[in-house]
Amino acid sequence: MERKIKVTVWNEFRHEKNEPRIKELYPEGIHGALRDALMECGDFEVTTVTLDMPENGLTDDILNNTDVLMWWGHMAHGEVSDKVVEKVRERVLRDGMGFFPIHSGHHSKPFRAILGTTGDLSWGANQQEIVWNILPQHPIAEGIPERFELTEEMYGEPFYIPAPDELVFASWFANGNIFRSGCCYYRGMGKIFYFQPGHEECKSLYNPYVRRIIRNGVRWLAPSDIGRADRGCIHQATSVLDDLKKEKENA
Ligand code: ZN
Fold first, then answer.
1. Reported pTM
2. CA-to-CA distance for 163 and 182, rounded, in angstroms?
3. From the CA of 198, how far away is ligand 1's center (Å)?
């Protein structure tokens, strides 16, 4: 039976607690906004967890029941336990769990551990951003126009990441910077998609195109063996194999 994609949304959840203007923007936390973006469609089962929960919210029980792990962190990357980071890395590389760091997740411990780089980048104030859809044939770009605009914190090149296996979005910022804003990777059995919008002072996570990209991203990241195969073809494939076997026997 085809089942829903199990998504765990991990959020640091500190800005929303400590800064009234951020709380006003994200009253249910950034994890709440990410959950709502996913719940606009019926194919996801969403769990939200936060840094201050036991084991940083990522117990074996939760992790082993996660197809795709979304990650929003910024001010407390260092508080995530190395044991948890290693478990996340193993789940991605060995079991094929998808990993989806958003925005400042470029500096998160799991992102650095999985990709093996610093994730450093150039940085600037909030300003106009144009997100360009530069790989419209990609599943993550489905339903996304050639370009759309946001007000975002500036992230610029050089972005110290390995060359993406697939680069779906690239961004222009008003002060002239450019940035690889939607990067796909295949690592071990798993996939990683980094997407840049989502600064806590900005409203990007309410933008319909950003929300669509979040859903597309999770679908692309989900392991391919969770029962979504075109089942109607299994018998055909089996009979083709049987036919070949018979042919061989009769030869
Ligand atoms: Zn930010």
1. 0.90
2. 12
3. 7
